[in-house]
Amino acid sequence: MAQILTVVVGVILIVFIGWWFFGKHSESQATAVTTKDGQTAKVVVNGGFNPAVLKIKKDTPVKLVFNRKDSTTCLEKVVFPDFGVDAELPMNQDVAIPIDTSKAGEFEYSCGMHMFHGKIVIK
């Protein structure tokens, strides 16, 4: 009986881990705020990126401002491979990252270990 229970718990755990890392989860979205100086989008880093999807206007300068609240080492960096950005995110400090908005499309970003992901949509 104990072996069956162990196997059942193990299978449930494997399914949960697979869902957690590979499943489709709802994503928070936000549109960058536009001022006379360009666009700004704020992202809180706490157990992931919030909002996870940022909508940005094409050909308008943008700064993505990250503020890390989570001490997890995985979230110490944010990486934008399409823009060549690999930025450190110190705890409780705003880090402004300028992004080139001359090309429309969807661009993924992630934490330094590629476990947490976000996306910017430039239209």
UniProtKB/TrEMBL annotation:
Keyword terms of this UniProt record = Hydrolase, Membrane, Transmembrane, Transmembrane helix
MF terms (GO), sorted A to Z: hydrolase activity
Please name the InterPro entries in this protein's record.
Cupredoxin (IPR008972), EfeO_Cupredoxin (IPR028096)
Enzyme Commission numbers on file: 3.6.3.54
Mind telling me which residue stretches traverse the membrane in this protein? 5-22
EfeO-type cupredoxin-like domain segment(s): 14-122
Q: Which Pfam families match?
A: Cupredoxin_1
Superkingdom as given in the UniProt entry: Bacteria
Name the chain's protein. Cu(+) exporting ATPase
Task: Give the source species.
Answer: Companilactobacillus bobalius
